[in-house]
Design a protein that fits this description.
Length: 139
């Protein structure tokens, strides 16, 4: 029964690792978006072609919007990284739990083997004693 439980926990662990992998990919994508947005903002600031005041006002408003977007993207990126880190911690705990169950199963198996060896040794000792007694009484 414990083996079945261990298998269930191992399946849980596999699902957790899969989720962690997806979260890491998502965090990487969010970080990439943040980087691209920062590059785009940088390209707007270096644009020297805007000479008229209306264009400069539009550019200023666009920069403001882009900076707000960049801040939101930074938050999304940080949140994705935090979620991936939290999932990694959960995976670590699950792995430790699975390892503890495996060790428990190994200890049980070793204990059962030892008990079986003792039973066999006891049977052999009893058989040897009976043979010894038969020889004594038979002589």
């Amino acid at each position: 029964m414990l083996k079945k439980y261990l298998q269930t926990q191992q399946d849980n662990f596999d699902a957790m690792r899969s989720r962690h992998s997806r979260l890491q990919q998502l965090a990487g994508q969010e970080q990439q978006r943040s980087h691209l947005l920062a590059q785009h903002i940088g390209s707007l600031e270096n644009n020297q072609q805007m000479l008229c005041s209306l264009s400069l006002q539009n550019l200023s408003g666009l920069k403001h919007i882009m900076h707000d977007l960049a801040a939101e993207q930074q938050q999304r990126s940080a949140l994705a990284e935090q979620e991936a880190a939290t999932q990694q911690q959960a995976c670590n705990k699950q792995a430790a739990y699975n390892l503890a169950i495996e060790q428990l199963l190994q200890q049980r198996q070793q204990r059962q083997q030892l008990q079986q060896q003792r039973r066999e040794q006891k049977q052999q000792d009893e058989l040897a004693m009976q043979m010894h007694l038969r020889r004594r009484t038979g002589s």
